[in-house]
């Protein structure tokens, strides 16, 4: 899994077809998260490929929302992107607007992490500061440590409360134009009845390490800091 273009070239292509700050931030976040997972899961030699897949995963969404992941191959051809990267980018929308199925471990990770980064971001936006950092600092020892203690102690009422509140209040869907993150009781209820919610909830509620990584792993500190630094420096 090799990359035949530079990050600067990839970022320039992203900016060519995406102007909304939200989309740029999401792409940068997923780039950082995918890099973290590549190292965490033992794919360090492929880290750049994982990162570029994350950076470019929504390359066509802002300009061509009705053709999401259908226009992506055409746009990625401007970078002479490999078939493997095109497959990875398209597979993240499998079952939604694309029939390209995630096969490689990286593709499966991105399929899940794309939605979860949006979920954590939405949870942060409910805070007055709009910051993930406030979520972490507002609890003694940090949110991840608090969650880990609750799960390790198997405090079932607390487990149910914290994860149901975090997941369902944060969950939402992108609007058709990609400019809004829509949340409602109906959307949350519908999500709570899916297999995806059941799998996520049971994993977080029964595995202390997974619960902690849900907070620390989905938006790692280094990824968040790099994204904010890039925004502050005007490099995106």
Quote the average pLDDT: 75
Q: Please report which band the strand proportion falls in: under 5%, 5-15%, 15-25%, 25-35%, 35-45% or over 45%.
A: under 5%
Rg, nearest Å: 18 Å
Helix content: 55-70%
Largest sheet: 2 strands, antiparallel
The order of strands across the largest sheet is 1-2
Overall shape: it is globular
**Number of alpha- plus pi-helical segments:** 13
Show the helix and strand layout:
Blueprint (H helix, E strand, L loop, with lengths): L6 H11 L3 H20 L6 H10 L15 H5 L6 H9 L13 H21 L6 H6 L5 H10 L3 H15 L2 E2 L6 E2 L2 H8 L2 H12 L1 H11 L2 H13 L3
Antiparallel strand pairs: 1-2
Short recap of the structure:
With 236 residues, the chain is an all-alpha fold. The chain contains 13 helices and two strands.
